[in-house]
Write a structure and sequence with these properties.
By secondary structure, the protein is mainly α. The relative contact order is 0.18.
Length: about 160
């Protein structure tokens, strides 16, 4: 990591997030795997990490990179919490899985935003479906691993910048 500039690391974070979102849209629109509420929240968290990465690429000061790294860490923690809850729901026994709720489109049309957000973060029975896996890991588990990587990268960047100062 020492030979790569901070700005290029942030660019790689941004491009990684763009790739993750492109994969999500591929699964949705090509493979017809409809996202559950927690999947949508994970997409938002990936978008946040990606936007922070883009800002980090545009910033040219070490102080700015520390701030951006901290923001990336916070966005990754949010993503870890959402993806972790999703993995937890997927591993619940069948009799403990929450009931399926209304569609996101219906909730947005009929409920206040605060309630929609609360329901989305809670998850439902749709979130327990295991419709795709790779190397024995579900999609939320892969996303969780990405968020853990982004968090470690954010911490490593802060440590690296502080050593240079």
């Amino acid at each position: 990591m020492t030979s790569i500039s901070n700005r290029n690391i942030f660019l790689l974070v941004f491009l990684s997030c763009i790739s993750l979102l492109a994969a999500a849209f591929y699964f949705e629109y090509v493979l017809y795997l409809d996202p559950c509420p927690l999947c949508m929240m994970q997409r938002i968290a990936v978008l946040l990490v990606g936007l922070v990465g883009l800002v980090g690429f545009l910033v040219k000061t070490n102080t700015g990179h520390v701030v951006v790294s901290a923001l990336m860490g916070l966005a990754a923690i949010f993503g870890i919490s959402v993806a972790g809850r999703h993995v937890w729901i997927q591993n619940l026994p069948a009799d403990q899985v929450p009931t399926c709720g209304p569609s996101l489109e219906y909730m947005v049309d009929t409920l206040p935003w605060a309630e929609v957000l609360t329901i989305m973060l809670r998850g439902n029975g749709n979130c327990a479906d295991l419709s795709w896996s790779f190397l024995g890991l579900s999609m939320p588990m892969w996303v969780l691993l990405w968020f853990v990587g982004f968090l470690f990268l954010a911490v490593a960047l802060i440590v690296r910048i502080k050593k240079l100062a």
